[in-house]
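This section describes the prediction task in plain terms. A model, or a person checking by hand, is given the sequence of a single protein chain and must write out its three-dimensional structure as a string of C-alpha cells. No templates, partner chains or ligands are provided. The sample shown here is typical of the held-out split.
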Amino acid sequence: MSEAIFINNVERVSNTVLTVGTFDGVHAGHRVLINKVVEAAKINNARSVIVTFDPHPREIINPGAAGIKLLSSLDERRELLADIGVDEMVVIPFDRDFSLLSSEEFVKNIIWDKIGVSHFIIGYDHHFGRNREGTIDTVKRLGRELGFTCFVVSKQEVGDRTVSSTAVRKAIMDEGDMELAARFLERYYILNGRVIHGDKRGKKIGFPTANIQPDNPAKAIPRYGVYAVWVRVDQTFHPGMMNIGNRPTFEGSTKAMEVHIFDFEKDIYGREIHVQFVKRLRDEKAFSGVEKLIARLKKDEVTAREVLMRQSPNIAKLRK
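The expected answer:
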C-alpha cells in the first residue's frame, strides 16, 4: 500500500474483505480485527481494505466539545496498516452531511456499491451510521440481503483493562505510563515533528536539546515529565531523554517538548525527527538552582541509558 485512496477514487472489487473504523492509534484491539481482514483476504484470494475517516468523526459530531487529541495522523495510520499487510486504506471525508447517513445507506451506498464486499469483519462493540444506529445485527441482516458474510471479533484486554483508543489516551496523557501504552499499542507511542529554535539553555548547561514542534497540532502529548526515548534522525535511531513541560526551574510558562540526544552533535534545526517513548522516568520538577538541575539530569541520563540498553526501538508484540 503506497498511499491512501479517497472514496471517490476507489475501484469497486466484489471480492473484498474489509472492516470500518477510525482506528486512531491502530492499537492491539484494532490489530486483531485488521489481522483477521488480512488473513481472510489471503484465504479467499481477495483484496484487503480498511475503511476509515478523516477528520475524526467526533470533531464533526461534537464541534462544541474540546478538540479530541489524536494518537495517529492519517499518514501514520496508513504506514501502520501497510506494515500489517493491508492492501488498501480507503478514506471517507467525514463531514456533517456524511454524519446524517443512515447505517443502511452507508452499507448499501458506500460499502456495497462503491467499494464492494464479500466479507465484512466487525468489532464486538462497533456502531455506525446516523446517531450510531448501526450494530452487528444491522451488518448481519444486510449481509444476508446483499450477499456478504459477517464475522465478529471479540474485545481485547491488557491485564484487566479493555484496549481502546480512550484507554491509550488516558495512559499517555493522564498517567504518562508509556509502558502500558506500548502494551496497548503493541509498539512504542510515536511523535513526529520538526526541530525548532529554542532558548538554548540546555546547551549552556551541557545538555543541548532539540525543541520539537509536532507535525499534527492535535497529537496527544504525554503527561509532563522526563522520558527515556528513541529518536530517529534520517534512518538512524539514537538514545535520548525528553522533557515535556514548562521548565519550572527557569520559571517557564509555556509548554515545551525538548529532547536531549545522547552522544549526538549534528545540527538538526529545521529537520524532521521521529520520537518513540519508552518509559517515563519522573515528574517535571522545579530545582532550587541550576547546579541541582544539572546533577539530576546526569542521573536521568544514566537511568535512561540503562532503560534503553534493554529496550530496542520498534519492538512489536509487547502484549506477550
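For orientation: DSSP finds ten helices and 14 strands in the chain.
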